[in-house]
């Protein structure tokens, strides 16, 4: 079966800003279309965002998104069951403990040209900074400075500005894969959507299919070259997501 053949999609994991959110009209069209899918055919809905969980919840109400089943926040450093409002058990064990945010911030405060992002973007497993137009060598030097202190970290750099420092086991894709395992859902039954480089980890989860709206960034589009499991939509933001879900057989 090819990526474009109709088959059941059991879970849909989507970024928010620039993917489902950014144009109120397309967000509303997505809400209406998704909620119109018969419940028996509707995939589980996961919002997978760089925003922290409380911020995601506020955004859902603010822009009128459909209510999700699960929330992955903080670039894969938080996992909550939205149906009961509680963190999903076992997530801290998955993340591991070789991450000390205070040590990360102490090291980063001595690195030139980085600016700490506002407190609302920080959590115990995520240290977020602004760094303009960083090259690979600069990012590697930062990672080396952190690992030299015994920290097991992963750097996520996107939009030529946003630098997230996470535990080595954490990112949007790793958390999504962990959730799928908890739910006994195969990656082949999953579709993801995103628009920037910090979404790339979702698209590189083995066997998932992906949707990139027309406003997607080049660093994410590079993953789509020669990959028929990634659909590059003609529509922007949520209109492109609707288009992609239809491409993958969701009756939306």
Distinctive features:
32% helix; 12 strands; Hypothetical Protein Ta0175, Chain: A, domain 2; 252 residues; disordered N terminus; 4-stranded antiparallel β-sheet; 8-stranded mixed β-sheet; single chain; alpha/beta; Rossmann fold
Model description:
Residues 10-249 form the Sucrose phosphatase-like domain. This is Mannosylfructose-phosphate phosphatase. InterPro entries: HAD-like_sf, HAD-SF_hydro_IIB, HAD_sf, SPP-like_dom, Sucrose_Phosphatase. Its EC number is 3.1.3.79. It holds the Pfam family S6PP. The protein folds into 2 domains: 11-92 and 171-247, HAD superfamily/HAD-like (Rossmann fold), CATH 3.40.50.1000; 97-167, Hypothetical Protein Ta0175, Chain: A, domain 2 (Alpha-Beta Complex). The protein is built from 9 helices and 12 strands. It is globular. Strand 1 (11-14), helix 1 (24-36) and strand 2 (44-48) form a beta-alpha-beta unit. It has helices spanning 24-36, 53-63, 91-95, 101-108, 136-147, 172-183, 200-203, 218-221, 237-247; strands at residues 11-14, 44-48, 70-73, 78-81, 86-87, 115-116, 127-130, 153-158, 162-167, 190-193, 209-212, 230-232. Strands 5-4-3-2-1-10-11-12 form an 8-stranded mixed β-sheet, with helices on both faces. Helix content is 32%, strand content 19%. The two termini are 21 Å apart. It has 252 residues and is an alpha/beta fold.
